[in-house]
């Protein structure tokens, strides 16, 4: 995993487990994901072990409905099986959904 994602993903994992995510942390991860995607789109190679990253994807994606239930937010528009565009696109959608949930709940 690129170094710029390592620290943020660790914080998000701790936040998911502790139920203490905030919009700023989610924004930081989204910015990092976008930077990696842009770097790749420029033709650069990024070596990410998706086998090591999948548990993180699973944790974030599983946290979305838990967060929504905690704050009474309806997630009908978020399809859990939507992997069109790859795992990073799905992960980003869940991070955006979590930011929306936190914004609506505050």
Folded structure, characterized:
It is a single chain. The chain has 106 residues and is mostly helical. It has one domain (3-105). It contains four helices and no strands. It has helices at residues 3-18, 23-41, 50-71, 87-105. The longest helix has 22 residues, at 50-71. It is globular, with a radius of gyration of 14 Å. It starts with a helix and ends with a helix. The relative contact order is 0.16.
Shape summary: globular
What's the total count of β strands? 0
Distance between the termini: 33 Å
| Discrete helix count | 4
What is the overall pLDDT average?
A: 75
Percent of sequence in beta strands: under 5%
- Tally of domains: 1
Stretches with pLDDT under 50, minimum 5 residues:
none
Order of helices and strands: HHHH
Radius of gyration: 14 Å
Share in helix: over 70%
- Major sheet attributes: none
Query: SS-based structural class?
Result: mainly alpha
